[in-house]
Amino acid sequence: MNKEQRLSLYHTAPYEINVVEEPAPHPGAGEVLARMLLSGISPGTESLLYRGQFPHDQPVDQSISTLSNQFSYPLKYGYSAVGEVIETGSGVNSDWLGRKIFVFNPHESRFCAGIDQVHPLPEHVSPENAVFLPNMETAVNLVMDGRPIVAERVFVLGQGILGLLTTGILSQFPLEGLITFDRYPIRREASIELGASESLDPEKMTTRQRIKKLFPDGADLTFELSGSPDTLDRAIEYTGFDGRIVIGSWYGNKRSPVNLGGAYHRSRIRLISSQVSTIAPGFTGRWTKERRFQAAWEMIRQLNPSRFITHRFNINKAQDAFQLLDRQPQSSIQIVLEYD
Fold first, then answer.
1. Rounded CA gap, 80 and 70, in Å?
2. Three-state SS at 19
3. Which pLDDT tens digit goes with each residue over 89-124?
């Protein structure tokens, strides 16, 4: 493929991925052109897109210019792109040439981005670690919204990559206990590696007994990050009187009845919606998105998330990557696409 062409990944129907060759873009004024080094597949969001479980006729993401189109097929998606600048547009200093950058951009082998959308990789941050920036920023946002307190009892439901990164950040707080939950052993092992006190299988009959033994009054703070609306009931069950539940999962068009007529009704539990495209109003006096990015880069340095890349696929094998994510979730944590 010559430099005038690029490969782009499209979701064209449920369970169908097409990688197509199309004209490569040229940088305009204030833009750079980058060749993709690798891009990360979001296990939660992109699984919903792959299965067609998304809300139709709504903006994909109004806060990211490359994702401002509607949820409908064919859909070009992805928001974790690490590339190298190979050309600059007018008004852009040539010092950008050769620099490694992060951009919220779909899976494609060449892409243009305005300088205001580009995040240069900090010194000593590898492309493999940089690909985790979106999930790490989300994890930072989740912890900010949860506002953990010294000696609290904290539960994290779901140990996909977002849950693991959240666990890694929480493990640095002086908590009384940090208990995590996931069905898959590979994730529970990673959770312990990141500092969880215990990591339990929510499907085991003994799990409820173990929770009652550890914290008979329930959790003070619970994060629901499983991606399954059914798990919200479990989060309510596990959380004690006047506890907080931070809901970071995106359920797409999946629905499930939530039991708000039982213990929840008298428990004064607070359900907190958390989404990374905005900063909670209580923080905006001193926090900006740029400051949150800096916090995310620092957490990347500390946690070294590249160790959780379990699979790499060439962009031409993207269909295989998504099939693995859909059919064998127990075998993967983070899947990345590579580009020749």
1. 19
2. strand
3. 999 999 999 999 999 999 999 999 999 999 999 999
Please say whether the beta carbons of 26 and 42 come within 8 A: no
Radius of gyration of the chain (CA): 21
Where in the chain are all domains bearing CATH 3.40.50.720? 135-282
Contact 161, 333 (CB under 8 A): yes
User: Which amino acid belongs to residue 157?
Assistant: L
Q: What is the pLDDT of residues 31-43, one digit of tens each?
A: 999 999 999 999 9
| Phi, psi at 156, each rounded to 5° | -125, 115
pTM for the whole structure: 0.94
Q: What are the start-end ranges of the H helices in the chain?
A: 45-51, 127-130, 133-146, 161-170, 185-193, 207-214, 231-238, 264-267, 289-303, 318-327
Give CATH superfamily name and number for 135-282: NAD(P)-binding Rossmann-like Domain (3.40.50.720)
